[in-house]
Amino acid sequence: MSRARTARRIAAGAAYGGGGLGLVGAAAVGLVLAEVQFAKRTVGTGLPDPPRADGLYGSEFGGPELSPGPLRLGMLGESTAAGLGVRRARQTPGALLASGLAAVAERPVELRNVALSGAMSDDLDRQVGLLLDGDAPPPDVCVIMIGANDVTRRMPPTQSVRLLTSAVRRLRLAGSEVVVGTCPDLGTIEPVYQPLRWMARRVSRQLAAAQTIGVLALGARTISMGDLLGPEFAANPREMFGPDSYHPSAEGYATAAMAVLPTMCAALGLWPESDRLDVSRDEDMLPVAKAASAAAGEAGTEVTGARGPWALLKHRRRRRVAGEEPAPGPASTSKAPTAPVAEPR
After folding, report:
1. 179 by DSSP, 3-state: which?
2. Is 244 a residue of the active site?
């Protein structure tokens, strides 16, 4: 069965209450997941909690008291959204995206990161509640990175997609733009060997495609995390992965942020490139399921709903902008070194 067809079945099961769906056969999946869990134990985490990066970024563009006030960015998901594996707040993906968004918008950005290391999609409801409960206005844009723990802990893919789409629906109804970083390619974990590496890749890419189909219907966008993220990680795994060989390093998170930032800015209408097709960069307009399948196999690819059953695959340009550390207190405006994120051109 093709990946597109499998993804359609998973997404349909999520939408209409279907149960779990075998992806490559129950025995094979169980073997893959056991191997992935063994790999995680082999490399060992032993990592400290990710640093807290919540705060105001881009203070040089004005304070929160100035109209129209700062843009609000919410980060949700699992350890990759939280920034597990780095020691400095400015190295986390939330901080990189907030500083990059501030530079593009020329406006302060208020970051709130509610992601939790080890989280599965069933924690998204709680995380959304943290962002939406209370008197504060909802985020202008939210970034969700989820899926890897759903695969390794054997959550049925239909349930995984259903929980994700429920969270996206709540955020969209609250008025937030949403970008979903889809399930990464678990075939990149070094201690997982062939043929299990191939099967882990297939399972995670099928979930990524189904996630895309589910959230596009709600007006969200996706960006393929793929093999976190493609050629850069494959060519330099020692630099792109952290000390546990499972989570990204500071350079790895920066590379991921360079891919997510253009899509996030485009969702807010801040990116100079339109949502029109650009064939010079191998972009395409495809049926949603085929677009989702293609993106799952090509890291860094954005999928945006177009019209009816069609979706647009985008490969937006990536460059770097300066970032800054959030102010630790109301009286502090200290700057941090330059952080590699993206900028338009």
Report:
1. strand
2. yes
The per-residue pLDDT for range 225-257, each reduced to its tens digit, is: 865 544 454 555 555 454 555 567 777 788 888
| Residue 109 pLDDT greater than 80, yes or no | yes
What is the pLDDT confidence band of residue 38, given thresholds at 50, 70 and 90?
low
Residue 341 confidence (pLDDT): 38
Chain centroid to CA 256: how far?
8
Q: 106 burial class (0-12, 13-18, 19+ CB within 10 angstroms)?
A: exposed
Say if residues 112 and 54 touch (Cβ distance below 8 Å). Answer: yes
Classified as helix, coil or strand, 111 is strand
Q: What is the pTM of this model?
A: 0.81
Single out the catalytic residue among 59, 79, 117, 293.
79
- Is the bond preceding 68 in cis, omega lying within 30 degrees of 0? yes
- Of these residues, 99, 140, 247, 249, which one is catalytic? 247
Confidence of residue 266 (pLDDT cuts 50, 70, 90): very high
Annotation marks residue 315 as catalytic: no
User: How far is Cα 71 from Cα 69, in angstroms, rounded to an integer?
Assistant: 7
- 8 A C-beta contact, residue 226 and residue 47: no
Active-site position among 244, 275, 278, 284: 244
